[in-house]
Amino acid sequence: FEHFFQLGQMQFQIALHLSFSLCPLPPLSAAANLRPGAEQRVVFITARVHPGETPSSFVCQGIIDFLVSQHPIAKVLRDHLVFKIAPMLNPDGVYLGNYRCSLMGFDLNRHWANPSPWAHPTLHGVKQLIIEMYNNPKINLEFYIDIHAHSTMMNGFMYGNIFEDEERFQRQAVFPKLLCQNAEDFSYSSTSFNRDAVKAGTGRRFLGGLLNDTSYCYTLEVSFYSYVLGGPTSAVPYTEEASMPHSSKNTYPSGYLSV
């Protein structure tokens, strides 16, 4: 029995590693930014590291659909930035219907510091890609955003890092403040900055310590349920039907932080 168990485990590891290595992560940008040798300003986005947090996929899909649209702001973003998006870091967990862990029982968002190529293949691959970009003098990885969903809090909000450098810490607060000014469902009052030990293995914490001090790393959380505009009785549920004000062609709940 032990022999067959080890053989099955080996085949599983090979299949996972091979499937991820064959899955490209194409950049989303204007062609001029992708020429060999061109300098790149990169925004890296990840989502669905926790399988049960389905709203994170809605947000990620909304971002992708907006960035590939003909909206003038989307065009400006493509002209100036390169977007790398990993929309599902835990595909096996999603397939199995897990809430938080992968097929092998790992919470991937606690293993950024030392991901295993066989136990955490998607995380390992994404981390290697980020490190390659970080070591490339032509690439400036300016933003990292990891999208999650929250089961108890309302609205969208962020977790950011705390740094000893006061100026760097103050700069980290600017982007959430801008989101609060431009997205009615984003709450700056629910946004917090921390360096809790239990969060040390998360993407936000690990990359915040790895990347240079001009980079910004955040966890973006969005409520499973609704956002509140005025008071405790003014909750607006996140629904697909109520979230498509621009076009009935949308196939995602664009009301999730569609800014």
TrEMBL record:
SUPFAM superfamilies: Zn-dependent exopeptidases
Names of required cofactors: Zn(2+)
Region (Disordered): 240-259
Domain Peptidase M14: 1-259
PROSITE patterns registered for this protein in UniProt: PEPTIDASE_M14 (PS52035)
Gene3D superfamilies with a match to the protein in the record: Zn peptidases (3.40.630.10)
Biological process terms in GO annotation: proteolysis
Any Pfam family: Peptidase_M14
InterPro entries the UniProt entry points to: Cytosolic_carboxypeptidase, Peptidase_M14
GO molecular function: metallocarboxypeptidase activity; zinc ion binding
Active site: E221 (proton donor/acceptor)
Family recorded in the similarity comment: Belongs to the peptidase M14 family.
The protein, known as: ATP/GTP binding protein like 4
Organism whose genome encodes this protein: Strix occidentalis caurina
Lineage: Eukaryota, Metazoa, Chordata, Craniata, Vertebrata
